[in-house]
Amino acid sequence: MISQKMQDAINGQIQAEFYSAYLYLSMSAYCEGKSLKGFANWLNVQYQEEVSHATKLFTYLGERGGKVRLATIDAPPSEFGTLAELFEMVLTHEQHVTDLINKLYEVAVSEKDFAAQIFLQWFINEQVEEESSVGEVLDKLAVIGEKTVDVLYLDKELSTRVFVPPAANNA
Ligand code: FEO
Predict the structure, then answer these.
(1) Start and end of every Ferritin-like diiron domain (predicted)?
(2) Does any ligand 1 atom lie closer than 6 A to the CB of residue 94?
């Protein structure tokens, strides 16, 4: 059985992951509106990853005999400025999520919930990967600026990203 404190914290993270999904879906629509289909695709894959993160937590809470309580998801912004500004926002958001995951892990430690500690290690690793992949796009944008030809080249590169569902187990 899972403690109330751990259950509440996981429910809070489910809400945060769905907000992340919503935010990236809004960013994807913004890029789509500018006919940057590769950027839109990259952000749509990001959206699908966030839904899978929420689902992973949702399934885990059920497996532990906890009660899922879905909460209100705030509306995300719909304007994001330049591509560099948009990706800065993605990075800042991912750093915030890393902070949330670390706090969730702290709850698992304080509750002496060893199973949750092992489960959450997947998310700790995932955040390293998330920040790194966003940082890569930002680095490229910093080099090319807003030059049309180079942005279109990067747009083509980002169009190749595909969603890979996380393994059902904790690998
Ligand atoms: Fe679910 Fe991008 O962190």
Answers:
(1) 1-145
(2) yes
